[in-house]
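ARCHIVE CARD
SHELF: 3
SLOT: left
DATA:
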Amino acid sequence: MNVTQRKRFVSCELIALAAGQPQAFAEMSERQYRDRIQWIAGEILASGRHIVMLTGASAAGKTTSAHKLAGAIQSLGRRSVVLSLDDFYAGEGRYPKNPDGSDDYESLQSLDLPVLRRCLEELHQRGVCQAPVFDFKIQQPNGVQTIDCRDGVVIIEGLHALNPELTKDLPPDAVFCLYAGLREEYAAPDGSRCLATRDIRLARRLVRDFLFRGHRASFTLGLWGHVCNGEERYIKPYKPRADLLLDTTHTYEVCLWRNVLDSMPPDPALTSVQQRQLEALCRKFVPFPALGTELVPQDSMLREFIGPQGV
């Protein structure tokens, strides 16, 4: 697969037509994603490689997709486990600094690289390692976890997964590289782009940050510029290393975000600029028919962002 392929353009009219049968639309979108996961699982096993490095931009769905891939590999009769690069954070007091003096969590040097490289070498040679567990409440490593991929596959997911500095001590053919991203954007009746993948990812992140991380919209929007800059610096330069692209598009989700965003409580901490940014984002979903989140299966990747039913 060519990971530099152009994104697909889908017209608003086609979305409106599909949304006329909402259940069928949702099921088709979910099935397409499941089929991609299953196909990539087969490709990984066919490659004979035991370490998968998976990255993607913020809110691309890489974490849930990593676990979906592990499940698909297990369904094919092989052991599979997921390891997050977040567990290799160096910890409070060891992070590099941004120019304003704040901790830089995006930099490669925010990870404990010697420990990470040791784990990767042990996984390659023996299929098992003792990896750290990072405690975000105390901002320090706290405990260890046994990662065992003997006769199977370990999927290592995170921001820097495709950076060759992580795997420089391994043979060139030791790892299978994956890039997770949305590949579908949407066109107005005049053919112009009206909704980009970055807009969808921001909607995903706004809701996930609020539901699962305790962050209001002002925090997420304030951080978003740094996040996007980090993607340009630390992810996109290594995208050509990917063996395959994992498309995390769920076409029907463009019909979900208007209601979901509208249901979020107001944030009095929003600046006037952030308020306009949020309003502009919400307007981008207005051209699409509004569908309810009850259409989203409980095991859908989208639940990573919208939470379980009833939340």
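SLOT: right
DATA:
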Amino acid sequence: MTYQSIVNNTRARLDHLFQQAGRIGARRPALAMALLLGTGVAVGAGAGLADNRMLRAELAQQHAQIAATKLDAQREINALAARMGELQAEANRLNALGERLTRIGQLQDGEFDFDKPVGVGGAGPVRDMAKPELNAGMDKLASQFKASGEQLSVLESLLFNRQIDMNAVPSRAPIANSYITSGFGGRADPFNGGAAFHKGIDFEADVGDPVLAVADGVVSYSGVRSGYGNVVEIDHGNGYVTRYAHNSRLLMKVGELARAGQEIAKAGSSGRSTGAHVHFEVWESGRVVNPVKFLNQQSPLKG
């Protein structure tokens, strides 16, 4: 029953009671007055009860609307939080990729600081941002992250390939903390005294000192060669082969992978030698070349 129907019914009852009271009042005035008073109290109580019910119903409806609004708002917040988590993960990936590129590219420390906050600013006024505008901004940021990630991945691949090429070029000494005792080219033969061509350079060493690979490569020879004694040869690709001679012991076998700086033999005085040392040769496209230009990390690919 609606509020209006209650009011209409109440009015009808009042009209009926007033008519009845008029008939009674003509005969008994006191009784008519009591009847009217009782009717007024009853009607007032009924109307108040109806108003109460209406207020409670409206209040319950408002509570339900507030609860539904809060639920919708929480769903939107959860969706934004999930999207923010995706963007944060992508940002972390790009930061890690940038740090790898910094190491591969051998950039100076501090040249790119990925933990340093980016300076921003701007003039007012500031206004509230609508949800569609916020979603559009996050979509744009996600697109920028994707494009940057693709570009950095390509750059990483290029730098990685270049790093592989650089690691495969002789670019260090075959023994640590040493010095050259005999250079490349013409010299007096140490045994017969006549003129001779020295195909490599000799480094001072003691028997048992570690002999190190000067670049990444695959061992192409490990054994004895006439005049050289115990020899290790490494094929680095790109036409480069290095030879390490007069060793006391060989540590690598043919077909094994040698990394730059890895110990491949022990220094000695085997073969045609006057004393312990490391004889080092570099061959480029089948032609012996002066190893000096490859020493001290001066790879021809660098710079």
